[in-house]
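> call design_seq(struct)
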């Protein structure tokens, strides 16, 4: 292995520390405490873990945290009523509805009920439009985390050839917009892309966000490229015992690390940055709501 490992866990801890310092200053100088409300509908085991971690890290950063758990059988109207209540609550600066929602709900309708100023996931259609037109918006947490790691490594992204594999609304499309805004030359590759291997081999920056375990192999990677692996895939791990799983990315780590200049591991790469950026977004939303200067280096 020759690639430098980009330690997302350590990077995320640093971001959380910076958020915590800003929060302490906000409290001391203005008597303001940023507040985050997370809405969890149903009992999806992974979502429960993520929501618990969000609450814990929010409190550790000195912010006000609320968790609103709703039964999987509630109606869409009940979830919307909850969001509307939180929209009107002055203690709350950030609202997040944990995804996926149960299948009987339209997540777009629910997400678009969140006040855009409190939409710390950056999924509301207004924030999507603002980002797409290069205006100030709330930026989705996972792509924001990737951008922070890339800026840290490259300084300027201007003129770099970036390939984003995957075109989801949550990662691929906002990642495209963020890289473009930083003047990278950006290609979005997806399941219908012809000769996707060759497209990936042209990338100085390769962001993998397809949700297909270990799809990207070492011979898809340009020597010295920076590889950001957004994938979190659970695959069977019989070597750990019957019914056991392990988590792998969208990149085949061993072969990609032979060729890349730097790579994020899974776990411990992009994942921890998602929650760190959620805290950063909550702080940003709070500063904007109170017409205070935004923290530097914690926004796009
Ligand atoms: N409303 C939202 N829902 C979902 C989002 C989101 O950003 N907003 N993202 C994912 C889940 N997610 C946060 O919600 C999340 C996923 C993974 C991690 C993480 O730290 N992963 C670890 C590994 C975890 C493990 O071992 O299972 C890592 O990569 O190191 C954090 C947050 C879907 N829903
Ligand atoms: Mg990771």
């Amino acid at each position: 292995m020759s690639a430098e490992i980009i330690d997302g866990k350590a990077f995320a801890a640093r971001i959380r520390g910076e958020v915590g310092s800003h929060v302490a200053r906000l409290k001391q100088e203005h008597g303001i405490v940023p507040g985050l409300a997370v809405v969890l509908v149903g009992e999806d085991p992974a979502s429960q873990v993520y929501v618990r971690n969000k609450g814990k890290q929010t409190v550790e950063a000195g912010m006000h945290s609320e968790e609103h758990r709703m039964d999987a059988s509630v109606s869409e109207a009940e979830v919307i009523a909850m969001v509307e209540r939180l929209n009107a609550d002055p203690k709350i600066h950030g609202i997040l509805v944990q995804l996926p929602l149960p299948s009987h709900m339209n997540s777009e309708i629910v997400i678009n009920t969140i006040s855009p100023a409190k939409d710390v996931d950056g999924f509301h259609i207004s924030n999507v439009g603002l980002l797409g037109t290069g205006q100030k918006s709330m930026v989705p947490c996972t792509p924001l985390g990737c951008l922070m790691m890339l800026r840290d490594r490259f300084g300027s992204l201007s003129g770099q050839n970036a390939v984003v594999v995957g075109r989801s609304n949550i990662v691929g499309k906002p990642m495209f917009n963020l890289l473009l805004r930083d003047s990278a030359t950006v290609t979005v590759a997806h399941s219908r892309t012809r000769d996707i291997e060759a497209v990936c081999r042209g990338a100085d920056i390769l962001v993998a966000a397809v949700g297909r375990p270990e799809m990207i192999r070492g011979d898809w990677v340009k020597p010295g490229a920076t590889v950001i692996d957004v994938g979190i895939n659970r695959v069977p791990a019989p070597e750990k015992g019957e019914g056991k799983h392990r988590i792998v990315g969208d990149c085949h780590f061993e072969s990609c690390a032979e060729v890349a200049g730097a790579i994020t591991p899974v776990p411990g790469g992009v994942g921890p940055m998602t929650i760190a950026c959620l805290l950063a977004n909550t702080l940003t939303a709070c500063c904007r709501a109170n017409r205070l200067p935004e923290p530097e280096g914690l926004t796009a």
